């Protein structure tokens, strides 16, 4: 009987792939409708001129519980970032190390100009405090802004401006650290428990691995959905599909008329790639630009993390901009000038490869949560929602939401006697 049930999943991003996986485990054979030519959604990698270009600087946090549940880290051949960061300022730079992971760096960190000695003690205290809490406890705590939490915890303006602000601007893709303190504490805990990593061959390897686990699902690529009415799916091509159940694993306000206007605009990021003869960082660390006069927020040589990102022996540099900026032909030249000011390397040596203007990089979620009852994914009879926007902007949340939507569909299709 299960094989006769028509279950459609709209969107082959992380949520949609997890939903399909759970449906297959229950004996169903879902059909996945994807508007683009491949799986991944916002997690994808392009091959360009011998380089692997992730669409937006993204990392996998290995401590994510859902990632540990669904991903084979060994098969992904994860490559790890060194904990900490490099602070880049015109004419000056210094390294922030994590002495909890590298005790030999304790003395260096104690005298680092990133903040006061009390700041470094408070980082240790915060780390230990969060390790004692479950993820559910963190997300059930009262919410304030990340910036206010940092101030209330007693961190100085110095370390906030030198580290927390540029580092978490790049994670939350907003410039005021107005993101909920719940999300900050969750991400901070994930960094302290695990590692930031990328698959050897780019972030696309994550959805590709999830797709490889699917043996009974049918994919229809280049099949954008125009709208959903009841249990009927209208494709842009004019084709209509009847379903027993539908999981919308993409922005639902674009295809459900009753949800139009109910979602805040997504957060945006601009990501530029440059090639260079060699890395001026020469270690797998993210570099933060603290001077607010610069457009550049953070940069990282992806080839310092995984050599497979380049097939031509050149270094690949990823630069992220979180400020509002006009993306035109002048932008890459302006960023090259900024890089020159930070490194004393001539601007013309930075060869521009590609610029990605990612309009829907992260959802804006007001009431952030860690999980939700599967029944809460139901929007109407036979139609269910999945996506990180239901919880918080993360790969972990995308996986959770996909699993919960599948559970709700499975329960709804069980025969009643």
UniProtKB/TrEMBL annotation:
Coiled coil: none annotated. It comes from the Bacteria. InterPro entries: Amino_oxidase, FAD/NAD-bd_sf. Residues 14-410 form the Amine oxidase domain. It holds the Pfam family Amino_oxidase. GO terms for molecular function: oxidoreductase activity. PANTHER family: AMINE OXIDASE. This is Phytoene dehydrogenase-like protein. It comes from Cecembia rubra.
């Amino acid at each position: 009987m299960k094989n006769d049930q028509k279950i459609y999943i709209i969107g082959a991003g992380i949520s949609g792939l997890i939903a399909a996986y759970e449906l297959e485990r229950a004996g169903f054979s879902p059909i996945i409708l994807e508007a683009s030519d491949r799986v991944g959604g916002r997690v994808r990698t392009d091959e360009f001129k011998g380089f692997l270009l992730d669409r937006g600087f993204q990392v996998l946090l290995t401590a994510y519980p859902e990632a540990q549940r669904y991903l084979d880290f060994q098969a992904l051949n994860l490559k790890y970032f060194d904990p900490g960061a490099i602070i880049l300022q015109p004419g000056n730079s210094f390294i922030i190390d994590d002495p909890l992971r590298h005790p030999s760096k304790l003395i260096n960190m104690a005298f680092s100009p990133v903040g006061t000695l009390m700041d470094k003690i408070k980082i240790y205290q915060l780390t230990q405090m969060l390790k004692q809490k479950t993820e559910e406890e963190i997300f059930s705590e009262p919410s304030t802004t990340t910036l206010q939490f940092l101030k209330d915890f007693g961190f100085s303006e110095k370390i906030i401006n030198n580290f927390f602000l540029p580092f978490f601007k790049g994670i939350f893709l907003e410039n005021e650290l107005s993101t909920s303190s719940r999300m900050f504490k969750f991400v901070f805990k994930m960094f302290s428990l695990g590692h930031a990593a990328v698959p050897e061959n780019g972030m696309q390897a994550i959805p590709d691995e999830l797709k490889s686990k699917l043996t009974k699902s049918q994919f229809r690529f280049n099949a954008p959905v125009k709208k959903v009415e009841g249990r009927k799916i209208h494709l842009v091509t004019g084709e209509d599909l009847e379903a027993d159940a539908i999981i919308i694993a993409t922005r639902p306000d674009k295809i459900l008329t009753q949800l139009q206007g109910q979602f805040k605009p997504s957060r945006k990021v601009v990501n530029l790639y440059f090639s260079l003869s060699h890395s001026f960082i020469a270690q797998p660390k993210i570099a933060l630009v603290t001077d607010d006069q610069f457009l550049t927020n953070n940069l990282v040589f992806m080839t310092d993390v995984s050599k497979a990102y380049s097939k031509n022996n050149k270094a690949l540099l990823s630069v992220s901009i979180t400020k509002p900026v006009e993306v035109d032909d002048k932008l890459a030249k302006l960023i090259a000038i900024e890089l020159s000011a930070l490194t004393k390397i001539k601007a013309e040596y930075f060869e521009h490869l590609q610029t990605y203007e990612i309009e829907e990089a992260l959802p804006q979620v007001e009431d952030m949560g860690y999980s939700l009852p599967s029944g809460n994914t139901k929007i109407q009879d036979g139609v269910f929602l999945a996506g990180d926007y239901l919880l918080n902007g993360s790969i972990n949340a995308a996986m959770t939401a996909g699993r919960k939507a599948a559970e709700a569909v499975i329960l709804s299709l069980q025969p009643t006697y």
